[in-house]
């Protein structure tokens, strides 16, 4: 998809966000802390990472401020409901 207007970006963003939200809803609650290898992102980390990037990198840069991303740990949101609320 080529994005060359704000409206096309908004449409793209809304579709992408909708798919992301649907995927989040099917994550088994007891697998949030699963990772394929010790020391790597868990499923919960990945979801928090997506939200943290959106909040603390994209928006800050769009507002011409320094990026404020500081990670994606449980300190941001712990547990399924908290992660959904954070997203």
Description:
This protein is mainly alpha-helical and 87 residues long. Helix content is 54%, strand content 0%. The relative contact order is 0.13.
Order of helices and strands: HHH
Mean pLDDT: 93
Task: Name the beta content range.
Answer: under 5%
The counted number of beta strands is 0
Shape: globular
| Low-pLDDT residue spans | none
Helix/strand-derived class?
Answer: mainly alpha
Give the terminus-to-terminus CA distance: 25 Å
Radius of gyration of CA atoms, rounded to a whole number: 15 Å
- Give the helix tally: 3
Helix content: 40-55%
Largest sheet, if any?
A: none
Protein traits:
87 residues; mainly alpha; 3 helices; 0% strand
Strands, helices and their partners?
Elements: H1 6-25, H2 43-62, H3 80-86
In short:
Helix content is 54%, strand content 0%.
């Amino acid at each position: 998809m080529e994005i060359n207007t704000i409206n096309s970006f908004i449409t793209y963003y809304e579709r992408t966000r909708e798919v992301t939200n649907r995927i989040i809803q099917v994550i088994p609650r007891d697998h949030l802390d699963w990772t394929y290898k010790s020391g790597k992102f868990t499923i919960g980390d990945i979801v928090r990472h997506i939200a943290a990037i959106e909040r603390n990198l994209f928006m800050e840069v769009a507002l011409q401020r320094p990026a404020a991303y500081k990670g994606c740990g449980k300190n941001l949101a712990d547990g399924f409901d908290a992660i959904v609320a954070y997203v």
